[in-house]
User: Fold these one by one.
Assistant:
Number 1:
Amino acid sequence: MSERNHPSHRIQRKQVTRFSGLLIFGIVLALAAIHARAQGQASKSSSQIQAAPTGNNDAGKKIYESRRCVGCHQADAQGSATTGVPRIGPPPISLADFVKLVRNPVGTMPPISADAVSDAELAQVYAYLQSFPARPQEESTAAGNAANGALLFARDGCYECHGREGQGSRQTSAPRIGPPALPFAEFAKHVRHPRGSMPPYTAKVISDSEMADIFAFLESLPNPPPADSIPLLSQ
């Protein structure tokens, strides 16, 4: 009998094979547990993200009042045409854009940091503002001619501060307005009664129909790509 086929060697080979099988089975179980845990965490995170925008109306109202948002935007969140403060109830933009505007506002509104009002609290405020009556249809849209609006945008010198694509400029401190983050009615209020260094544009300078064309042009512009999708900014 060869040494390789000796009974003791066969027993050892069986033991090695059994040990290898148990080892592989243990590795598979460990990988499955890690995968299940990761899936659970991802699902929990996704649920939290989906639930965040719903917020709580009562909690949102308290935050809205205690942080003095009511001082400028009014108790009914309708804003003021006199001071140029826009209507924000209900919000015409998504929660993500709402948070961005609060953190980096346009005009004379001071920026509100996450230390002052957290993202979770802003979600509560957003939910409260969503509880307000919907805007009348004529307030949220404008029937304009985008092609003519592009000509007017250049003719009236809007591009000199806001850029050819309405992208805004740090040099002029002009905010991005393409596409508009506000409905037409609020956009018109800002043009007629702007805040900051922008001069007012009366109906004698830009008529309501011309303003509708400019708004249509700005609406036709694409949204900017997310910052994390730009390789240079993600380095």
Number 2:
Amino acid sequence: MFLCAEDWVSQDLKSCPWHQGMIAAGPKVFGTWRIRAKRAGVYRVEVRRWPREIDAPLAGVPAPRTGRPDAWLEGKPVDNLLYGGTPQALPVARIGLTISGRSQECAVKSTDGAAIFEVDLPPGEHTVDARLIDASGQDIAGAYYVYIRPAAKSERTLSK
């Protein structure tokens, strides 16, 4: 399952980042997603600032993409952000994840592209809130991208 900020359900639609140019600016906006788990199990939740395809660090900006277009416009390659915008670095030091009232948080390095969580979910509907947090514990923004899938048995960790 792929979630992006454009799909937030509790966000003011006027400020919801709906294209990459808006996300590049790193707006301080927040929202949640609603998901449905078809079956109970452990799920792998990958929280990102940038989509996987860009492969950029949570606290950094994407590398310039010379000769590799990000989009197509009237048959012509586009080598910059289609809707404009200049990527801004954000001081991301931690990632927070809350699913149906259960919260987790983890520290991230400035070079990390994502924070990975494992969440045990019962079947049914859930609310997902993922946040980018600075070193002082202040929320920077909602995480703009989240990927969720059942965790493979080899990825699961044992806890007491």
Number 3:
Amino acid sequence: MIYGSNRDLKKVLQSAREQRIPVFLVALPGQPAAQVVLPNTQAYLETVRINMQHIVDNSGGELLFSKDPDDVVRLYELLGRRLGMAYSLGYVPSNSLTDGSFRRIQIKTRDDSLHLSQSREGYYARPR
């Protein structure tokens, strides 16, 4: 866990869902085990990667790994192009209760050849 407690991570994940702002992270790949200095470092780095994935999944964003530090620029350019083509869908839910519960949503296309690169897992039905 990269935060002080499991509760802290849960707060971050909930905030990532509630803010409705996709989080995009660009990271370098993990170092080979032979380069790890401390015994717990490899486990720590794996936990960081998992937590980063949870954050982007909860926000509707994406985690991209760069091959090396020079590849980071290419990934930011890729993100810029993707965000430039971003769109937003809206709908009125059939369940009008605003009870604060998390409602899962799933977006599908009629044409299986079309691919959605991201979508939010759901939303909170909060009172306005």
